Structures are given as structure tokens and as C-alpha cells.
Amino acid sequence: MKTKVLVVDDSPVIRSILTAIIEEQPDMVVVGAAPDPLVAKELIAKLNPDVLTLDIEMPHMNGLAFLKRLMAVRPMPVVMLSSFTQQGSDVAFQALSLGAVEVVGKPSMGAPVDDKYSRSIVDAIRGAHAARHNLKPPSSSPSDAKVVLPNLGKRTQTLQQVVVIGAATGGAEAVREILTQMPAEAPPVVLALQLPPGITRHFVKRLQGECKMTIREATDREPVLPGNVYVAPSGASVTIGKYEARGYGIQVMDVMLDTRPVDALFNATAEAAGSNACGVILTGMGDDGAAGLRAIHLRGGHTIAQDEATSLVYGMPRAALEAEAVVVEAPLDKIAKHILGWASWADF
């Protein structure tokens, strides 16, 4: 059965562009289009769409205000679209915190729509649809982590510890949950996180105001130091390699259309850090990261997967479990504790 999409945007041109992109997909169909939230409210009741694409600036009611009301009375998968996201605006993160599954930039009127942009739209809709059964993870987890596999090795004192985290759909808020619990002296953290184009610097700025660790946009060949979190620049991915005697250095690469950024980071970390690595896989659609997390596990590193109950989309953690790559499966609000336990040689 095709995914039913309702497009909400005050611009008839944008509605037409989005409809054309969506209708080209074999697994989705546009069941309606609304110029404002008031019409959207009526169409939601009438058409029962699976996914909503929602503009931010519209007449009668701001898109964020409508999103807040919608998630309170009828939670459903929402993909937020706005030109603001291309400028790194705070509205992107407001939308995510209010319950939007994905935030994607609007197409520019008068400019051609390329395959990369079309793919970002349809991937966001597919990710939102995959999250439909788990839109509101519990704020407090009913259980703690469970050990899935034994660690295969012991750490060596010849290299420093490093934490690598991979996430996709729902990942920005999941990463925020973990990093706000980390102390200033924590081991370095390198992120493979899919963010909407143009908002990486704003994401860094927002986290820096909430975290004790230093959040930074990664630059090529810089050293990986304790107390720092490294976020890939917009349009790029990051890996690490050995740097001098005991440490690691950042490697920044352009993201290609079929790049698997989580696997790239995890595989490089397994090679560089071995048993001194901790790999964490969070919410996301697909299986990116499963093979790389297994590489970390086989080299003696520690591996953690977010559990199903707190994952917005359980695809990536499930794939890692099926690949026998996970040592500990944990609720989101307990993952920081287990990272710090590993870093201090605590016994899980």
C-alpha cells in the first residue's frame, strides 16, 4: 500500500513541485494539498494521511504552532519544510523538539530541482512513515540496558579512548539527549549525523549552549582531543585516523549520493582505535553503521545500540543487532551512563 502524503504550503508553486516529486515515487501518493493549517486540519480528518509535509510560514497560523497542536491531539509523522533551514535557523530545531521527524529545505522557486534534492524529500517522507508507530518515546525508560554480547578485547594504554556515534532519522534530538549528560572531561566524541543542509553551524551553536563538552564543526586533519565533540560540516562526512603517537586526527570528506557515512566513520575507527573505541548506533532508517559497528566489536571495542522502545526509527539499531555487532542495548536516556562506564573501566 502506498504512503499517503498531505502537502501543506501556502505557495501553489511549491505545492506543485512537491506533488510532482512525490507522485514519481512508486511507494507514495499525494492525497491532498492545503494552503494553510486551517484547511490542513479539515483534510487530515477527511483523508487520514500517513505523512504530512508542513511549511513554517503560512497564513492564519504559524507552522510551528500548528505542529505543536497537532502532536498534542493527533500525533502523526511530519516532515517540516522551510527556507529557514537553509540559513541554519533555530526553527529547524524547534520543529524537531516539537515532534517533527525530519526537517528539509524548501525548493527554490525558479531554480531547477535536481535528483539530490528530490531524494532528500522522498527519503525524509519514508523515514517519517517508518517512525509512525513510535512518535513519542517515553521520557523515562521502563528498563535499563541489557548485555547482548561479551566484549572481545581489553583496551590498551597506548592509545586514547574515542567515542563515535552514528544516527539518521530522529538523530539530532537523540544525540542532544546523550551529549547534555556528558561531563567536560569526557573522551572525544565524533558524530556521523544526517542534518538538513546549511544548519550544522547552528546545531553546533545550540549544543554548545547546553553541553559541558566543547562542540565544534570538524576541520580536516585537526587532532581529536578529550572534552571535544566533532560534527561533520554541512555536505561532508568525517572519519578518523591515527595521529602522532597516541591520538587520532579528523578526516573530512565530501558526501556522495550513495555514501554510508556511519559505516565509513565506524570502519575507520575500528582500524585506528581498536579496543579503545566505543561505537554507538542510534535511531535511523536502513542499515548504515551495522557493518562498521561489527568491525569495532571484532577489534575489541565496546558497542552500544539504542533500544527499540526509545528509537524513533529502529532500523539502524535493529540491523546492528542482527549483524551481531552490539554488546549493550540501552534506552536513550541511559546511553551516556554506559559510555561513561566504559570510559572509566566500569563493569557493566
Give a summary of the structure in a few sentences:
Helices cover 34% and strands 22% of the residues. The chain has 348 residues and is an alpha/beta fold.
Outline the secondary-structure elements.
Layout: E1 3-8, H1 12-23, E2 28-34, H2 37-47, E3 51-55, H3 63-73, E4 78-81, H4 91-98, E5 102-104, H5 115-130, E6 146-147, E7 162-167, H6 171-179, E8 189-193, H7 200-208, E9 214-217, E10 223-224, E11 228-231, E12 236-243, E13 247-254, H8 261-273, E14 277-281, H9 290-298, E15 302-306, H10 315-322, E16 328-330, H11 332-343
Parallel strand pairs: 1-2, 1-3, 3-4, 4-5, 7-8, 7-14, 8-11, 9-11, 14-15, 15-16
Antiparallel strand pairs: 6-16, 10-13, 12-13
Fold and architecture overview:
- It is a single chain.
- The chain has eleven helices and 16 strands.
- It is elongated, with a radius of gyration of 20 Å.
- α3 (63-73) packs parallel to α4, α6 (171-179) crosses α11 and α9 packs across α10.
- The model is unreliable at 137-141 (pLDDT under 50).
- It has helices at residues 12-23, 37-47, 63-73, 91-98, 115-130, 171-179, 200-208, 261-273, 290-298, 315-322, 332-343, and strands spanning 3-8, 28-34, 51-55, 78-81, 102-104, 146-147, 162-167, 189-193, 214-217, 223-224, 228-231, 236-243, 247-254, 277-281, 302-306, 328-330.
- The chain has an eight-stranded mixed β-sheet with strand order 6-16-15-14-7-8-11-9, with helices on both faces. Strands 2-1-3-4-5 form a five-stranded parallel β-sheet, with helices on both faces. Strands 10-13-12 form a three-stranded antiparallel β-sheet.
- Helices cover 34% and strands 22% of the residues.
- The chain has 348 residues and is of the alpha/beta class.
- The protein has two domains: 3-130, Rossmann fold (3-Layer(aba) Sandwich); 146-343, Methylesterase CheB, C-terminal domain (Rossmann fold), CATH 3.40.50.180.
